[in-house]
Structures are given as C-alpha cells and as structure tokens.
Design a protein that fits this description.
The complex is a heterodimer. Chain A is mostly beta strands. In chain A, 0% of the residues lie in helices and 59% in strands. In chain B, the strands form two sheets. In chain B, strands 2, 4, 5, 6, 9, 10 and 11 form a seven-stranded mixed sheet that branches. A four-stranded antiparallel sheet of chain B has the order 1-3-8-7, with no helix packed on it. In chain B, strand 5 (43-51) and strand 6 form a beta hairpin. Chain B is globular, with a radius of gyration of 13 Å. The chains are: A mainly beta, B mainly beta.
C-alpha cells in the first residue's frame, strides 16, 4: 500500500487565505518532488527538494523538506482560484513494484470566492 | 505539456472485452510508466519500462499487459481479467528511469465500463 501519506485529503479555503499540505514518508527519502493536477488534467511537476531542511519558493508557493528527510510541506500564501487542484508529493521508495517514484495520496484544494 | 500523447481521451469497455490505451512520447526518454488514478487516491503504478523490449510490473499489474517494441510507444492493454477497470489512466516518461527523476505525464485516458 501507500507509504507516502498526505494530509489533509481535502481543503476548502476562501480566496486570500493561506493553505498548507503535509507529506509524510515511512522511510527516509533521498529527495521529494511535488506535482499539481488541475481538475480534469494531468500531474505537472512543480519542484524537487534534495537537501535536509531545504526550503524553496516559487512566487506564493513555499516548499520545505524536513530535517530528517521523511516529511515535506507545501504552503501557499494568499490563495487564488488558479491554485485549485490536487497537490501530490512523490518520493523514491522501495515497494512491491520496485524502487520507483511513489506518489502520495494527494491533497485536493478548492478555493472559493 | 507537449511531448506525451495519449489516446483516446475517453474509452468505453464492454464486459469481457480487452481494450488498448495508446501512449506515445517524442521526448527521447528511455523510461515510460503507466499509472492508474481512482477518486480519492494517489497514483498507483501498473507497469514501467526502462528500455525497449523490457518492462516490469508495478504495484497493481494484475489484469493489465504492456509492450515496448519502440522507444516512443508504450501501449497498455486492460484485459477482461481486470474486474474493476473504471479509472483514469496516466502515462508518463522520464529520461533514464532513475528513481529520482522528474516524470512527465500525458493528458490521460478515462476508461468506463458499460
């Protein structure tokens, strides 16, 4: 089963509010990737974090990799309707299907005007 | 967005029927992947291929088959053995297949059972 968990599963916010999704792995990760999937669309790569404690920003999005490299977060400041979608984290984990990129369960964000 | 195409966008399957989903890429990537996405769940790996004429089972390969006769193409067949095939199927590729690489996704195929 999934070894990369995300919380919350769903989040509704008013436009302008902040949003955070958390990603937790059962094992230490060499890196963590984040993807965004718009409604009806396909996942699109956002960013990759590699170093322990790393923080990267993309405009209103802030990504953080935990010190133990087992968790990560994505924070969006002052959400806009264009932020709507599902955000997935992904990390290389050994599963029954081999040592491949394993995607988290995703957090679906809805932004209301 | 460009580089990976999937067809058809929607596909309807009758009971007991095999159907094949197409995936083509012009990114010159060695590795290709098939994922299944169900509502409320993440992406689950069905099959992947790191080189022509070779592929490996992912986490949920039962009821599916693939082939990799050309570098550009990685078709997925959903067989009648897959009892719950209704889902969104995503094809992806990466440069070499190393586990830390970014993956690029196609637009997906929605499969519905009649």
């Amino acid at each position: 089963g999934q070894q990369v968990m995300q919380i919350p599963q769903y989040q509704h916010v008013q436009e302008g509010e902040d949003f955070t999704t958390y990603c937790n792995s059962s094992t230490t990760l060499s890196n963590i990737q984040w993807y965004k999937q718009r409604p009806g669309g396909h996942p699109v790569f956002l960013i990759q974090l590699v170093k322990s404690g790393e923080v990267k920003k993309q405009k209103r999005l802030t990504f953080q990799f935990g010190e133990a490299k087992k968790n990560s977060s994505l924070h969006i400041t002052a959400t806009q309707t264009t932020d709507v979608g599902t955000y997935f984290c992904a990390g290389p984990i050994l599963t029954g299907g081999g040592n491949k990129l394993t995607f988290g369960t995703g957090t679906q964000l809805k932004v209301e005007l | 967005d460009g580089g990976i195409t999937q067809s058809p966008k929607y596909l309807f399957r009758k009971e007991g029927q095999n159907v094949t989903l197409s995936c083509e890429q012009n990114l010159n990537h060695d590795a290709m992947y098939w994922y299944r996405q169900d509502p409320g769940q993440g992406l689950r790996l069905i099959y992947y291929s790191q080189i022509v004429n070779d592929f490996q089972k992912g986490d949920i390969a039962e009821g599916y088959s693939v082939s990799r006769e050309k570098k550009e193409s990685f078709p997925l067949t959903v067989t009648s053995a897959q009892k719950n095939p209704t889902a969104f199927y995503l094809c992806a590729s990466s440069r070499t297949g190393h586990r830390e690489e970014t993956q690029y996704f196609g637009p997906g195929t929605r499969l519905l059972v009649l």
